Amino acid sequence: MLLETRKPGERFEAALRGAVEGGGDGGLSRYLMGSLSGPLSDSLKGRLVLYGNDDQGWFENLADGEDFGAVEQAMARGTLVWEPTAADTVTLFYERTDIDGEGAATQSHTNGSGIPGTPRNFPRDSHEFAIDERGYQSVESDFLTLRWDRAVGFGEGTLTNIFGWRDQSSVAMSDIDGQPEFLFHSPGWIDAEQWSNELRYRGQFGSALDVTAGLYLFSGDLAYHDRRLFLGESGVPGSAQFTQDGGGEQALDTLAVFGSADYALNERWTLSAGLRLSREEKAVQVASFNLNPVPCNIVVSGDCPFDFRDRDQWDTLSPRLGVSYRPDADRHVYASWTRGFRSGGYNLRNSNAAQPPGPYDEEQVDTFELGYKQRAGAWALNAALYHTQVEDMQREVNLPSGTAGILQLIRNTASAKLSGAELDLTVDAGAGFTLAATASYLDARYTRVRFDLDGNGSVDSADEDLDLPRAPEWTGSFEARWQGAVPGGRLDARAAWNYRDRVAYTDNNLGYILAQDLVDLDLAWTSAGGRWTVAAYARNLLNEVKHGGDSQLPAVFIGEPLGGTFSPLARGRIVGISVDWRLGS
Hints:
- The chain is mostly beta strands.
- It is built from one helix and 31 strands.
- It has a domain at 7-82.
- It is 1% helix and 63% strand.
- The strands form five sheets. It has a 22-stranded antiparallel beta barrel. Strands 8-30-27 form a three-stranded antiparallel beta sheet, with no helix packed on it.
């Protein structure tokens, strides 16, 4: 819940930005942003940011030939910083966000079993789709933080208290079947409220010991409802022949005590240690989809019967150890071990009451890292080796169903190990040029499997041979920047390439996300006084296709041929121009 944002300064500043972009088969997207910042009195400073976006939709829906993906967004963010004394600083932050738009651009392509979507099937490496349900999304969110910092004499330290609160409600509709026919549509509702409070102290004792200690509290309430509409008439609300309603309510409370210390043995060697003790309690009541063929709603009307109620608690102890060696000001060698946990919980999207929604156990992650950093004149190098061991891995196993469309089961499926290497290099090439490159290699594999991941009816070596979802073997990037003086101001140019390997999406590896080669370009002119900037930019210049998921759909659904996938599309190539105006910066 904690968010760092730019604070108001000692001088008055104003900024305004307008941008327009497009690049797809749909319409244009327009942005307007502005900010005001500065002192309001001797002890009070303020900052206001406003943001608006009117997007006509990047896509074309081939079912009707209309632009698709329209969305309107508005955001207001305010910050006040009050310094009542020389030792105290109070920061109040508030943000309001409203989003209204159409649903996801869902594509159906031939799935991992070789079954094409019916009646329409599209190339996986295209932005083509045809759906009869345009869907919708509506989100309202309020977010507030109140932070108090006090300088204290003990350890020449700082006492900090951060309170956060968020309230969010959303409703959305998606065309799950990805077809121009009404086979499987699904609206969903979420209502969530949460608060947190962190009290911490940081101080330095002598020249060798730096200490941080604190207490963290969190409480959150969540109501979630999902409705599944099967076999209806396109464009006719309420025409679904079959419905399933389900979801749940969850109350979550967390208490954590933490501390860490860095101790400098001398100017070169530093030892680090940390410890976090957490207790998390969840209480849930769940309505399984297969038990609710008559419409009800947990969020709107609260009239769904719950078939599962439970409460559980997870206590975890997370240690951290590290050592750092600095032979000189330009080189740094470090090694660390950390243990973290992902708390246990419950599945609020329980498709079948015969499969209990939980509780599943906490996931334990141990990470060992060895790193090296160096700066030498015109270049800087960062390199790291790491090894991660995961026990009781939590996975949402995503499976096709001939009666429910898609089943989501949350289970502790396996243990795994992930070993890798990362390399970052930045070079000042002179004449205004800066070059940067990154490369990352990951070897991720299962060490023990306890769930039938591939669906062959048994847990065996075939499950262990599967790829871990969303774990690319290779990623990399290259970026070149140039900055130089031109008549009337300064010119900045940037070209960047980012690569990510193909990755598995579903645990059985039948669903996957294509490899990505993303090329971005930027060219910006800034006036001599810095007041004006005019820029042109391109994102994903090669128009690469990226899916937000690749859920496998059943070959036959309630007696109707379906197949294919539920694969929401991300926008492709974006080209745009922007104009910035600044005062006082």
